[in-house]
Design brief:
5 helices; single chain; disordered C terminus; two-stranded antiparallel ribbon; disordered N terminus; alpha+beta
């Protein structure tokens, strides 16, 4: 079966969540700039504003997603490498704008991205002493997934679509191999709202498009 340029197997084994501290913590990694230059640096990630802050000579310097092509760093706790790329994302405003995404799987036909953010929300809490309910605030990590398909127009950016945790949406994106994908989805008993299932789904679709699954030639039913 086609393997992504990143080692998706490691992601299938381990699931990592930023947590509030890790969203702003400094880590050592490598940054590839849009200019073509690269640098080993200590930096923190700000996904809310799509920028990174880099320590340079004891001073803090800020780079926007527009100035960055990619960066990566190694989690010290488990020696796992996390890759981030800049993609243009269109939320209905022209050609879109650059945003930072973590890359879970890169494929020639379908790529899986994610973004994590801290969400502050109000939740009801029962006060046993007074017998009344009151609102309290809490923070949680929200994970959003995005699917990337190539653009048939070479002058346009890749198509980045926010995944809405919908099985119907998955099959629509893979409609040219819908029969095979539906059979695989059922055979593997995949879910549509978890990372492991999404990785398997994306990996298999790329394998079908490449013409091989499990090392065997796969006829293209779309022809």
């Amino acid at each position: 079966m086609f393997k992504g340029l990143l080692c998706s197997l490691l992601i299938l084994i381990s699931s990592f969540v930023f947590g509030q501290d890790n969203l702003t913590a400094f880590r050592k990694g490598v940054i590839i700039f849009a200019s073509g230059d690269s640098a080993k640096a200590e930096f923190s990630i700000n996904l809310t504003n799509d920028l990174i802050q880099v320590m340079e000579g004891g001073a803090l310097k800020t780079y926007s997603a527009r100035q960055i092509t990619s960066f990566y760093y190694i989690e010290p706790e488990n020696n796992y490498t996390r890759f981030f790329y800049t993609y243009y994302y269109n939320e209905g405003r022209g050609y879109g704008y650059p945003k930072l995404f973590e890359v879970l799987y890169i494929g020639p036909h379908l790529t899986l991205l994610t973004r994590e953010s801290i969400i502050t929300e109000s939740v009801p809490m029962y006060d046993g002493f007074s017998g009344r309910s009151m609102l309290t605030t809490r923070q949680r990590v929200q994970t959003d997934y995005y699917l990337v398909t190539p653009n048939t127009n070479p002058e346009r950016k890749p198509n980045v679509v926010r995944y809405k945790f919908s099985k119907k949406q998955l099959f629509k994106i893979c409609k040219d191999r819908a029969k095979e994908m539906k059979a695989f989805y059922k055979e593997q008993d995949l879910g549509y709202a978890n990372k492991a299932s999404l990785l398997k789904f994306v990996d298999y679709y790329n394998a079908l498009k490449q013409g091989t699954t499990n090392g065997k030639e796969t006829p293209d039913s779309s022809k």
